[in-house]
Amino acid sequence: MLRQWLIPFVAVLVALAGIGGFLINSDRTQAVVADKQALTDVTPSIQHHTHTDLQKSGRRLDEINQVIASRVPHLSGLQSANARRGSGEPWNDPALNHLYQQIRNQKLTLWFPRNGEPFSIWVGNPEKIVDGKKIYQHAETLQKSVALINQLPFPVRIWFYGTRDQSNPELGECIEAVAEIKNLDGVKFSYCRINERGYEALRNIPQLQDLEILHSHLDDTALEQIAQMDGLRRLHLHFGKKKMDSAVAEKILDLPHLEDLKLCMPLVPERATSFWKKLSGCSELVALEVDCGTVKQDVLVKFLKDGDHQKLEKWVVRNVSPRKKLSDAFVLAPQLTSLKIPSGSTEEMSYLLEKLASDLPGMTNLIIGWDTGMHLTGDEARQALRQLGRFKNLQECHVPITLPDAYSLQPLTRLSQLESFYCKDLNLNQETLLLLAQMPSLKSLDVNALNFGEESAHLLPWLSNVEQIEIRAPSSLTDERLALLDTLPQLSRLIWCDIAIQEPVPLTPEARKKYPHIEFDICGN
């Protein structure tokens, strides 16, 4: 018995010695590794252990061996915590703090990159009171700031943000000041009123390649101006819900360098079909998201068959669930690596997964449907997870699957780049943690409940890149489990909703205060 136990024990020590630098990224991580080593440092008194103790220790060592065997091929490629958090990005240079403050003093806001947004100068509604009246200062503020903005050593996007009732003034003169910015990354409008002078000013910005207009003034006249901005490579437009019966929308498809198009513009059915027909000729598109109203699936199939889509990498499909014809046609976009599409029947979803795994195994992002609605269950769910295991480069995955059992997650352990995935009824317990610990790149988890205790303490630290966990049943979060979760080296955020739950969250205020580095994101707060 002793000889059988010592062999895996020595193997683990050798493996751990070889990867000693793996988790040494912070004081918290060092403490985690020290605790794990203390757990295994039992050789001097091994003769005093009971048979049950040896069984428990042996099982833990076997589980750690499984994790190490899965993780070793990927350890050499791991970055430090500071590298992952972007400390080396140019906008984090402390030498820029004084310049940042000068820009802020001009009533502008700095928007540092997050949620997919680039570094932006955020122009809200700067104002002053003159004779008891509110006077907006958009043009004056931006004009005074151009010289400061031009000192920034990286590209900058100007983001105009108005009011939801669009009571802010029309933007015209201040847009003209944007042309003076030398290193312009793009221009974005949210909830703004843009007059004809403003659109003409945009058209006259020679370096403008990125334009985004959301919930702001757009009409045929605006489209005519936008269609003349020949330098545009990225164009995102949102027209709201009012249906249009106009052929002007098709003019933007003549832009010669357009690579990234996102368009929300309800068209009458005849116009929508005509728009998709012309869109099939846009062979330079790399990213596409078009919602111009409900169209038949045959329209999208024809779009794929009639055009050259060798460069298309990202596609968000709206209003069309995948049937066999469309699933078969995706192969005509051979570089497609990111796909988001509404869910259909379980048979249709199963067929789509099978075809994508066969035709487009290089997929990195796959989103089918949402959390609600029909889910794959039982054998269909197991088969779907096996199909997902064939996408070797998969990073993000959301497929409506109800997890039939913990072992069904096994195919996902082969995905070394997987950062997030969704499975309904995924609980954190001994069985699932053993498998999750074998996924080296996981950054976020969406779980139903927390069902683990001290018996899982040796596995939790191996979730070494997990930064956030969303908990659907927060009544399972206790002080003791929070202490164990704190052994995750990168954990910084816990998300839950405590509205309409059957039992209160048992987490005490004292426990929350004990871990100030963890953000508790609670809906409604």
The end-to-end distance, rounded to whole angstroms, is: 55 Å
DSSP strand (E) fraction? 15-25%
How many DSSP E strands? Answer: 21
- Secondary-structure class: alpha/beta
- Rg to the nearest angstrom? 27 Å
For the largest beta-sheet, the strand count, sense and barrel status come to:
13 strands, mixed
Residue share in helix: 25-40%
| Spatial ordering of strands, largest sheet | 1-2-5-7-9-10-11-12-13-14-15-16-17
What does the overall shape look like? globular
- Tell me the number of helical segments per DSSP (H or I, 4 or more residues long): 17
Provide mean pLDDT, rounded: 85
Low-confidence stretches: 1-47, 76-86
Organism: Gimesia maris
Protein name: Leucine Rich repeats (2 copies)
InterPro entries: LRR_dom_sf
Structure in words:
It is a single chain. Among the domains are: 2-81, no CATH class; 321-418, no CATH class. Helix 8 runs parallel beside helix 9, helix 10 packs parallel to helix 11 and helix 13 packs parallel to helix 14 (378-388). It has 525 residues and is of the alpha/beta class. A 13-stranded mixed sheet has the order 1-2-5-7-9-10-11-12-13-14-15-16-17, with helices on one face. The chain has a four-stranded parallel sheet with strand order 18-19-20-21, with no helix packed on it. The chain has a two-stranded antiparallel sheet with strand order 3-4. The longest helix has 25 residues, at 51-75. The protein has helices at 2-18, 27-40, 51-75, 81-84, 97-105, 138-149, 173-178, 196-203, 220-226, 269-279, 297-306, 324-329, 346-359, 378-388, 430-436, 479-485, 509-514, and strands spanning 109-111, 120-123, 127-130, 133-136, 156-161, 170-171, 184-190, 193-194, 210-214, 234-238, 260-264, 287-291, 314-317, 338-341, 365-368, 396-402, 420-424, 444-447, 468-471, 493-496, 519-522.
